[in-house]
Amino acid sequence: MDFTFSEDQTMLVDSVRKFLMNEVSPELIRELWTRPSGRSRELWSLLAAQGLTGLSVPEANGGMGLNDTDWVLIAQECGYHALPEPLLDTAWAAAGLIAALPDSDFRSQWLSKIADGSARIALAQPQSGLVPDAHWASLILLPQDGALYAVSPQLARLTLQPSVDASRRLFSIDWKTDDAERIATDAKAICDEAFNRSAVAAAAQLLGLAQRMLDLSIDYTAQRKQFGKPVGSYQAVKHHLADVAIRLEFARPVVHRAAYALAHRKPLAAVQVSHAKIAAAEAALLAARHGIQVHGAMGYTWEMDLQIFMKTAWALDAACGDRSFHLARVRDFALAGNAALGPAHTFEE
Amino acid sequence: MNLAYTERQRAFRAEIRGWLSEHIPKTPLQSFDTAEGFAQHREWERTLHSGRWSMVTWPQALGGRGCDLIEWLIFEEEYWRAGAPLRVNQNGIFLLGPTLMDYGTQEQKARFLPRMASGEDVWAQGWSEPGAGSDMAAIRCTAVQDGDSYVVNGQKIWSTRAVWADWLFGLFRTAPESKRHHGLSFLLLPLRSPGITVRPIKQLNGQTGFAEIFFDNVRVPLENRLGAEGAGWQVAMATAGFERGLMLRSPARFQETARALAALYQQRKARDGGVDPVLGEAVARAWMDAEAYALSTYATACRLQKGGHIGAESSTNKVFWSELDVRMHETALRLAGPFAELTGGAPLAVDHGHWLEGFMFAQSGPIYAGTNEIQRNIIAERMLGMPRS
């Protein structure tokens, strides 16, 4: 039993943090909002040059073969810095999905392209049908009727569906099922796994977003004075942020266990993923709500950086299975009448 | 990260599970807030001690098993899972015990710890005073040195189970002119000393869980001081950390309550043929929160075992478990529906009125061990670094 991260894992995430701190500033994010693509080829190249696109690609295909517990901390950093590139979709979720396919030219070719950064992969969200970053992808992976299709963006009609988060580029997609694009027929299990992985990626980002909003709020309330004192010295303001800290403390290990459960294919992984998505979303939503409250009117403006992280949090709450979906999964489990509840089941094997 | 138990941990779980199934009293004990119930619980502490299960984290030499924090969590899981009696000596086990280990002299450890482990000495807390609740630095009870003893005068209040307990630990002002947290000392004194009057205070449930204690020239030998004279505040803060933190409220307690809530939901469903989906969601959330608390505790325990230090977890834990306990019992009473108001004596009471009792007890959680308002201030100032008011 060891519920801590290894030195390798924390060193890796430290270097990712430094990289994102230098390369993904709020100024860059705002600038990218104004571009039609919303994306930066330079930033993607830098991510690839750092080796980040190859993290979970198997070593045989030119990657590092890392698993979900390695990714979870990195995804938290992506959330903390609101990274506006499809790194997690491509290098974590899609790479995992393609790696789970039987050996084929398709598999080895695309894994290598993901590893060297020459491919970006978009994944359809089964709960909504929306496809993030479809315009920016080399390939769109679409589950349909238990099969999995790989569609070239040029062969599909994409309709932009603007999101509350100007960093997100979401599309609905019109395409005709074509047997030539089918890459797996009986793909339900691996598609479910990819969906759960996307949900953990969203949950981990939401943790990072919550932490960022908390940090911004702490800084702001230390500087902003009213009645001659920093507003952060008032108990009512303190209690708002203490509540965010508490929610975050108790969401973090839930997300980490979900990542572990996915990596080790535990029988309760789906329920634990849903728990993680709910806990992280609620921590982030509280951080947003209390963040805007303690920023006062400034928090309601375009000028403050708080809005960047707040809007990403609102978007990710709805993405990768909204809370109703995830709560239903947890409820179905907990209320089935025969569930292993109570002490001594936390790490059921 | 490796979330699988070791062979040794599994064997330990099997051992405690076996022992408990053989030794747990067949009929539930009465409340330890009654004279008879207190005696029954003291007897249970003795039984636990005879199996060396009363203080599993203590060294073998003191009757413990030298368990680490993960083993302690496993022990607690099995204890709650088996429905074993509440620990009447929890003030001793979870608060004074660890404090004595850290601050006691060899003589003090030898004198107090074994009797605590066997249940011969049951301890009560002497923190609060009528003018000093969460603001513990406002303590006015004096202990003035006179020869080889202190002479104690003043009053303590909200002392849980002091009516039946044998000993008291608490903070006293040993430097009469001192202010706030200076000049305080941590003293251990027998509740049967001459000059002590213990007056019971009935709690919400009508039982005498609390007491107020009056000291009239009570003599306490100098060797009953824990830590240096005037250094009582630091010792007490360590104790308070144990109280709010890992040890007092093990996650298994809440996981067991969540399990029982799910069972109550099934009862209601069987009776009515369906349950308001809002209550289903509340049960699911109770389970998630209890799991989150368990996971967080495991994560902290693993970090501590690797040489980490306990930080603001004490305060985040305290707020989280106390508010979770209230929510869970509110959900239980809603599931009990029209029978929620029935007390344990009522023939139609749901689960023998156990939920109503728990609901009332849960009301005290956000108040004791430092109110949740105080905890939130601590989180904001010490964990988040926000400016002091």
UniProtKB/TrEMBL annotation, chain A:
<dbReference type="InterPro" id="IPR037069">
    <property type="entry name" value="AcylCoA_DH/ox_N_sf"/>
</dbReference>
<dbReference type="InterPro" id="IPR009100">
    <property type="entry name" value="AcylCoA_DH/oxidase_NM_dom_sf"/>
</dbReference>
<dbReference type="InterPro" id="IPR013786">
    <property type="entry name" value="AcylCoA_DH/ox_N"/>
</dbReference>
<comment type="similarity">
    <text>Belongs to the acyl-CoA dehydrogenase family.</text>
</comment>
<keyword id="KW-0285">Flavoprotein</keyword>
<keyword id="KW-0560">Oxidoreductase</keyword>
<feature type="domain" description="Acyl-CoA dehydrogenase/oxidase N-terminal">
    <location>
        <begin position="6"/>
        <end position="117"/>
    </location>
</feature>
<dbReference type="Pfam" id="PF00441">
    <property type="entry name" value="Acyl-CoA_dh_1"/>
</dbReference>
<dbReference type="GO" id="GO:0050660">
    <property type="term" value="F:flavin adenine dinucleotide binding"/>
</dbReference>
<keyword id="KW-0274">FAD</keyword>
<dbReference type="InterPro" id="IPR009075">
    <property type="entry name" value="AcylCo_DH/oxidase_C"/>
</dbReference>
<protein>
    <submittedName>
        <fullName>Acyl-CoA dehydrogenase</fullName>
    </submittedName>
</protein>
<dbReference type="InterPro" id="IPR036250">
    <property type="entry name" value="AcylCo_DH-like_C"/>
</dbReference>
<feature type="domain" description="Acyl-CoA dehydrogenase/oxidase C-terminal">
    <location>
        <begin position="193"/>
        <end position="327"/>
    </location>
</feature>
<dbReference type="GO" id="GO:0003995">
    <property type="term" value="F:acyl-CoA dehydrogenase activity"/>
</dbReference>
<dbReference type="Pfam" id="PF02771">
    <property type="entry name" value="Acyl-CoA_dh_N"/>
</dbReference>
UniProtKB/TrEMBL annotation, chain B:
<feature type="domain" description="Acyl-CoA dehydrogenase/oxidase N-terminal">
    <location>
        <begin position="6"/>
        <end position="120"/>
    </location>
</feature>
<dbReference type="InterPro" id="IPR009075">
    <property type="entry name" value="AcylCo_DH/oxidase_C"/>
</dbReference>
<dbReference type="Pfam" id="PF02770">
    <property type="entry name" value="Acyl-CoA_dh_M"/>
</dbReference>
<dbReference type="InterPro" id="IPR037069">
    <property type="entry name" value="AcylCoA_DH/ox_N_sf"/>
</dbReference>
<dbReference type="GO" id="GO:0050660">
    <property type="term" value="F:flavin adenine dinucleotide binding"/>
</dbReference>
<comment type="similarity">
    <text>Belongs to the acyl-CoA dehydrogenase family.</text>
</comment>
<dbReference type="InterPro" id="IPR052161">
    <property type="entry name" value="Mycobact_Acyl-CoA_DH"/>
</dbReference>
<dbReference type="GO" id="GO:0016627">
    <property type="term" value="F:oxidoreductase activity, acting on the CH-CH group of donors"/>
</dbReference>
<dbReference type="InterPro" id="IPR013786">
    <property type="entry name" value="AcylCoA_DH/ox_N"/>
</dbReference>
<dbReference type="InterPro" id="IPR046373">
    <property type="entry name" value="Acyl-CoA_Oxase/DH_mid-dom_sf"/>
</dbReference>
<dbReference type="GO" id="GO:0005886">
    <property type="term" value="C:plasma membrane"/>
</dbReference>
<dbReference type="Pfam" id="PF00441">
    <property type="entry name" value="Acyl-CoA_dh_1"/>
</dbReference>
<keyword id="KW-0285">Flavoprotein</keyword>
<keyword id="KW-0560">Oxidoreductase</keyword>
<dbReference type="InterPro" id="IPR036250">
    <property type="entry name" value="AcylCo_DH-like_C"/>
</dbReference>
<keyword id="KW-0274">FAD</keyword>
<feature type="domain" description="Acyl-CoA oxidase/dehydrogenase middle">
    <location>
        <begin position="124"/>
        <end position="218"/>
    </location>
</feature>
<dbReference type="Pfam" id="PF02771">
    <property type="entry name" value="Acyl-CoA_dh_N"/>
</dbReference>
<feature type="domain" description="Acyl-CoA dehydrogenase/oxidase C-terminal">
    <location>
        <begin position="230"/>
        <end position="384"/>
    </location>
</feature>
<dbReference type="InterPro" id="IPR006091">
    <property type="entry name" value="Acyl-CoA_Oxase/DH_mid-dom"/>
</dbReference>
<dbReference type="InterPro" id="IPR009100">
    <property type="entry name" value="AcylCoA_DH/oxidase_NM_dom_sf"/>
</dbReference>
<protein>
    <submittedName>
        <fullName>Acyl-CoA dehydrogenase</fullName>
    </submittedName>
</protein>
